[in-house]
Amino acid sequence: MIPEKALIAQIRRLAKTPLAKTRVAKSRNNPAVLAGIGDDCAVLRLARRSGNQVDTLVTTDFSLEGVHFRRDWHSPESVGHRCLARGLSDIAAMGGEPLAAFLSLALPRRLPQSWINRFAGGLLSLAEKYAVTLAGGDTAQSPNGILADIVVLGAVPKGKALLRSGARPGDRIYLSGELGGSAATLRQMQKNPRRKLNPRDYPRHFFPEPRVKLGQVLREKDLASAMIDTSDGLSTDLAHICEESGVGAELQAELIPRSRIGRALQEVDVEFALHGGEDYELLFTAPPHKRVPARISGIPITQIGQITRGRRIFLMNHSGAAHELKPQGWEHFRK
């Protein structure tokens, strides 16, 4: 491991490689990022964009070795991609535009420099795709594993952020894409730790795609009344919407779209779709008079239930039988 000052300089150089040069050039014409890596603070101007008032979005997420990834399972590029994808998905869930990211890294002393370079490459590749500037961060020596903390800043027109608290009885519940692919992939690796999975066969786990454009379209067209990303699992994330909105919900089990994974494209078990996290799809509600297209920005949209007046969530089967659906997605510190 090279010294901290050299490490920061290396990351700064990586952020200005040909991959990132177009974003650096754009940031000089973009009032959002006035100064990035190299000062005590990044300088951002978010009060107005294109003459319009905006609200600032800020989100932060940990990526911990042994919790969110394992070096023997995940390539450095995958770890970097997933690290930023978590923050971008939060911005997407608000209907926002991501602008800048701040990365803090705690690294073991003997970690190869090549691992860090490849990690940064995975992160910067995704940042370039969504025109996000890596504007700063921090580094420290870790006594054990790798810890990466990503902070993402974004913007949304004043008063237009999509919150979890807007769902109302009678609203329809919609979901983008498919669920369960990431959790089912993780289960395969847990069952056979020495087996190396090909990321091309399991893209939703190794290189998830945050639904940034979809979130913006839902906000611009005023389709969604409440929204959240499925980072913790459908049962848990829907419970967040219901709790913040003071409502309940009914889900139709057979309507929940399930991922197909592996070379054989095997459909995952419904339990992974209900409770598996890290899919980074968008779960949203919409009033019944709103016409929600079957595809938005090329992403399939599925109606999977409706909001009710009660405070509980029920899962309905094809015969009409129902049972209460308790949150069983990811939650730190739960026994």
Explain what you see.
By secondary structure, the protein is α+β, with helices and mostly antiparallel strands. The chain has two domains: 4-157, PurM-like, N-terminal domain (60s Ribosomal Protein L30, Chain: A); 164-324, PurM-like C-terminal domain (Phosphoribosyl-aminoimidazole Synthetase, Chain A, domain 2, Alpha-Beta Complex). It is 30% helix and 28% strand. It has helices spanning 4-14, 18-29, 76-93, 113-129, 181-191, 203-206, 212-220, 234-245, 270-275, and strands spanning 33-35, 43-44, 48-49, 52-64, 97-108, 133-142, 147-157, 172-176, 226-229, 248-252, 260-261, 266-267, 282-286, 295-296, 299-308, 313-316, 322-324. Strands 8, 9, 10, 13, 14, 15, 16 and 17 form an eight-stranded mixed β-sheet that branches. Helix 2 (18-29) crosses helix 4 (113-129), helix 3 (76-93) packs parallel to helix 4 and helix 3 (76-93) runs parallel beside helix 7 (212-220). The longest helix is centred in the first third of the chain and has 18 residues, at 76-93. Mean pLDDT is 87; it is low at 17-28.
Give the helices and strands, then pairings:
Elements: H1 4-14, H2 18-29, E1 33-35, E2 43-44, E3 48-49, E4 52-64, H3 76-93, E5 97-108, H4 113-129, E6 133-142, E7 147-157, E8 172-176, H5 181-191, H6 203-206, H7 212-220, E9 226-229, H8 234-245, E10 248-252, E11 260-261, E12 266-267, H9 270-275, E13 282-286, E14 295-296, E15 299-308, E16 313-316, E17 322-324
Parallel strand pairs: 5-6, 10-16
Antiparallel strand pairs: 1-2, 3-4, 4-7, 5-7, 8-13, 8-15, 9-13, 10-15, 11-12, 14-15, 16-17
Helix pairs in contact: 2-4, 3-4, 3-7
